[in-house]
Automatic annotation (TrEMBL):
Xref: CDD domains: Tryp_SPc
Keyword Disulfide bond: yes
UniProt keyword list: Disulfide bond, Signal, Zymogen
Gene3D superfamilies (UniProt xref): Trypsin-like serine proteases
Annotated Pfam families: Trypsin
InterPro entries: Peptidase_S1_PA, Peptidase_S1_PA_chymotrypsin, Peptidase_S1A, Trypsin_dom, TRYPSIN_SER
Residue ranges constituting the Peptidase S1 domain according to the UniProt record: 1-163
Protein name: Peptidase S1 domain-containing protein
Entry keyword annotation includes Transcription: no
């Protein structure tokens, strides 16, 4: 079972709202070995009420240009020295790169020492225009290469699920 908490940037935040998930929709062609189609939609048990701490985000589509600078955020581990999840929402700027492996797998990629940590999977890749372009997916273990599922490539699947559910 899943729970989704909104309106918080610190785990102890008093204003957060946690909702149960009514149904999960993993992508039908998800491959847990290669992390292909690493995306899931969650239908919440109740609607989220927007306020100063909770706002919707626009999703990029295939007509949006490929961005270069983005921001990733998550609650994952903050260093290789510990296995504890962060109690504070962390964020880091990343630069998307062209890479043969990423082109072959049809994912966005960033490189470098700074990027998403273990436990950040599923977090957003938000770029220059404030739209969500991707979902944090995986890290290539031998490289400092971070992979993100492309939201524009999944919009048809997202739209179809939204209509049916």
């Amino acid at each position: 079972s899943y729970k989704v908490c909104v309106g918080m940037d610190d785990y102890s935040d008093k204003d957060k709202l946690c909702l149960s998930v009514k149904h999960d929709f993993p992508h039908g062609k998800y491959n847990k070995t290669t992390f292909t189609n690493d995306v899931m939609l969650l239908k919440l048990s109740t609607r989220v009420i927007f306020n100063k701490n909770v706002k919707p985000i626009r999703l990029a589509d295939m007509y949006d240009p490929v961005p270069k600078t983005c921001l990733v955020s998550g609650w994952g581990v903050t260093s290789n020295d510990n296995n504890w999840m962060s109690y504070k929402l962390m964020e880091v700027n990343v630069m998307l790169v062209d890479n043969d492996l990423c082109d072959e797998e049809n994912v966005y990629c960033s490189t470098g020492e700074k990027g998403p940590g273990e436990g950040d999977s599923g977090g957003p890749l938000v770029c220059e225009d404030g739209k969500a372009y991707g979902v944090i997916s995986a890290k290539a273990s031998t490289l400092q290469l971070y992979k993100y599922t492309k939201i524009p490539d999944k919009m048809e699947w997202i739209d179809e699920l939204m209509k049916l559910n």
